[in-house]
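Recap from last week: sequence in, structure out.
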Amino acid sequence: AKGLNIVGGLALLDADRSGELIDRGLLIGRAAGIPAVTGLLNVTYQVPFLSGLSIDSQFNHTSKQLLNPRTGVYTPGYGTLDIGGRYGFKIGESPATIRVRVGNIFDQDEWIANRSETLGRVQRRALCRHDGRRLGG
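Predicted structure tokens:
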């Protein structure tokens, strides 16, 4: 469809470790905090009846992650959806843009495993800056 742009990506990573502790069965050979599957799907639509307006969304998926290689505890996989819009216009001869984006629109609340075998959290729903970072915290 005219004005529709779809981009997707998928990374598959077999982050295995080796060594004596793994050979002896004391540790799991999977690297902690690294998902086996990471994917994204980005959709942008240029609104045909209003020049300069586009609507976009991004879906991110992360598979389960090993938290502790001694116990085999994993954090669950999760997905988040971001939705935003952009309006480009001119002020005099200078181009300008207004951008609005809400990250994690459904407020997905999950634990994530870090490589240091500690827990973190998925960033909660938030209004985001133009560069994707959260406003107000």
